[in-house]
Amino acid sequence: MTQPDKDTIDEVVRLRAELDDANYRYYVLDEPQLTDDDYDRRLRQLQDIETHYPQLVTPDSPTQRVGATPDAGFAKVQHAVPMLSLDNAFDEAELAAFVKRVAERLEVDAERLAFCCEPKLDGAAVSLVYEQGRLLSGATRGDGRTGEGVTSNLRTLRSIPLKLRGDAYPELLEVRGEVIMSHAGFEALNQLAREEGGKVFANPRNAAAGSLRQLDPQITKTRPLQFNAYQVARLEPAPEETTHSQLMARLARLGFRTNPALEVVEGAEGVLDYCRRLGEKRDGLGYDIDGAVIKVDDLRLQRELGFVARAPRWAIAFKFPAQEATTRLDDVEFQVGRTGAITPVARLAPVSVAGVTVSNATLHNADEIVRLGVMIGDTVAIRRAGDVIPKVVRVLKDQRPADAQAIVFPVRCPICDAEIERLDGEAVARCSGGLYCPAQRKEALKHFASRRALDIDGLGEKLIDQLVELDWVSTPADLFRLEAERLATLPRMAKRSSEKLVAALQSAKQTTLARFIFALGIREVGEATAANLARHFGNLEALMEAPIDALEAVEDVGPIVAAHVHTFFRQPHNRETIEALLACGLTWQEETIAARPQPLAGQTWVLTGTLEGMTRDEGKARLQALGAKVAGSVSKKTACVVAGEAAGSKLEKAGQLGVEVIDEATFLERLAAWEKGEIDS
């Protein structure tokens, strides 16, 4: 066997260190330092060396995350320290009673007793054992005393260090934590499963647990899983730290992801305030929690309190309302959206889910009805998480009544009686009535008048409903023919209101090509795509006549979007609508935008606070004209944040992520220079 020289060994050490650091920064800190291409190039270099010198392969090498061969089953693992359950508190009175009980047992002042609080993640609990800084084994919780050995699967999670960071790692470390799946990862996984005819998971918790128990680690590797540490079960030599929160800080230094919402508070009021604040933030976290975990922070006091049969006396779980509930499906109605999409909506016996009374839930489409096997009269499980619309996730078929009825998907539009079409390769069925369908007409007009489209002030949803029902408006062009005298005859429309609306309609005629394209309501064409189309073609005529291959050449426009745009402009009634709008006086400055310099191409900017010299929409338009994307939230990908007066949480987030922040004066100076071509980005 050929022996590696010192330079080769040094190269292996360097590559492993760089890859380990890249994994830590990306999956733990959310601060990537390497591009995907740079990471892949280094990984391939390391793989090539290890292939040539197999004696250099070690279990903690980044190349070993790819997973082992499929397992025949999972070995049983006896936990050295049992993974016990926690007692639960279901209301604030029970939580306050826990604090009082602990303080009385310890004979200390309850209001000065420190507690470490953090979200109770809703995933799959696991235990990781490290010896001499290297991952030795990993196991599921199981029954608390015996779990399943899933080491090969856990090694594929890049948020789990194969080797602890730094040099001062302990001889033995056992870390407990939760493997979770984010809402975004869960929805993407289920969407892929629907497209491929695979298994659709009911919720992120089940998806995380099922992904961990795959016999083939290669499958686990493809799942969007994340490990969050929450407890040190064993540590040798004994820790110098005296509190749980200090141990968590040590875990973060060793390379583990810990929850950023962890806080140390004092007394019952501090604990209650934390739980209230966490409950308010619950829907915006991006992952499921089912409560908060409250622990006495002092480790000596934890030992003094000890355990009862199945739970520690020094900790409790405060449970939030469940995000799933069961109820009866009483009926199914079919709604028609702006693009003609037919959506089945379940009408339910009202039930409380996550503290909100739910009586309607989406069934998505005909395929989902078939997949669920749902019938009218069934008992169904409803899920509501984050800002996701409540949906039916499964059917309790063993509770199906004898008089349950099949759900019949309509073949004609329930609003206009036009034929319902379903194209090959699409899950969604659509009404073919277009703007002639009142349901689509209303939604199309609302979209046309919306703030991000033509921004017609005073033209709200209720007024549009009235105008369509009275048959005063059939197409967007009809809006610009409305007269103040006639509008004033409508209920709750005084003379002044009608005059203001007509003035707003006249003002809206001066727009931009990007806004006009977005306002047309072409399928799959959002603000960013409309801006790209306007920037690429420069004028409406060129866009309307563009063949599909020319449309596919536009940034972020793929074959599906190109087909939708091409089809839209080939429809005679759509061309008639556009001609009528132009005849009403809609106009914008046409120019070959593609010829402009694009110094901000590829950059993402965020505007926050109030700008004095322009509106935020104007600032956004000028940035987009320079090639930038303008986002509504700050992330690690943000290039710069423009902070106006009263900038809030976005400014704070930018500081945490080290994103550049500039004031309005600097922003205006840079804009002027970029637009004159005087400076690069």
SSE map:
Layout: H1 6-27, H2 36-52, E1 76-78, E2 88-89, H3 92-106, E3 114-121, E4 124-131, E5 134-140, E6 146-148, H4 151-154, E7 172-181, H5 183-196, H6 204-212, H7 217-222, E8 225-236, H8 244-254, E9 263-266, H9 267-281, E10 289-296, H10 299-305, E11 315-319, E12 324-336, E13 342-353, E14 356-362, H11 366-372, E15 379-383, E16 391-395, E17 420-421, E18 430-431, H12 438-449, H13 461-469, H14 476-479, H15 484-487, H16 495-508, H17 513-519, H18 527-537, H19 540-544, H20 548-552, H21 559-570, H22 572-583, E19 604-608, H23 616-625, E20 629-631, E21 640-643, H24 649-657, E22 660-663, H25 664-675
Parallel strand pairs: 2-11, 19-20, 19-21, 21-22
Antiparallel strand pairs: 1-6, 3-9, 3-10, 4-5, 4-7, 7-8, 10-11, 12-13, 12-15, 13-14, 15-16, 17-18
Helix pairs in contact: 1-2, 3-9, 12-13, 17-18
GO molecular function: DNA binding; DNA ligase (NAD+) activity; metal ion binding
Binding site for NAD(+): 36-40, 85-86, 118, 141, 178, 295, 319
Keywords: DNA damage, DNA repair, DNA replication, Ligase, Magnesium, Manganese, Metal-binding, NAD, Zinc
Protein architecture, described:
It catalyses: NAD(+) + (deoxyribonucleotide)n-3'-hydroxyl + 5'-phospho-(deoxyribonucleotide)m = (deoxyribonucleotide)n+m + AMP + beta-nicotinamide D-nucleotide. InterPro entries: BRCT_dom (IPR001357), BRCT_dom_sf (IPR036420), DisA/LigA_HHH (IPR041663), DNA_ligase (IPR001679), DNA_ligase_CS (IPR033136), DNAligase_adenylation (IPR013839), DNAligase_N (IPR013840), Hlx-hairpin-Hlx_DNA-bd_motif (IPR003583). It comes from Halomonas korlensis. Its EC number is 6.5.1.2. This protein is an alpha+beta fold and 681 residues long. The protein has six domains: 6-66, Orthogonal Bundle (Helix Hairpins), CATH 1.10.287; 88-319, D-amino Acid Aminotransferase, Chain A, domain 1, CATH 3.30.470; 324-432, Beta Barrel (OB fold (Dihydrolipoamide Acetyltransferase, E2P)), CATH 2.40.50; 434-508, Orthogonal Bundle (DNA polymerase, domain 1); 513-594, DNA polymerase, domain 1, CATH 1.10.150; 597-675, Rossmann fold, CATH 3.40.50. 37% of the residues lie in helices and 19% in strands. The protein contains 25 helices and 22 strands. A five-stranded mixed beta sheet has the order 2-11-10-3-9. A five-stranded antiparallel beta sheet has the order 14-13-12-15-16, with no helix packed on it. Helix 1 packs antiparallel against helix 2. 33% of the residues are buried.
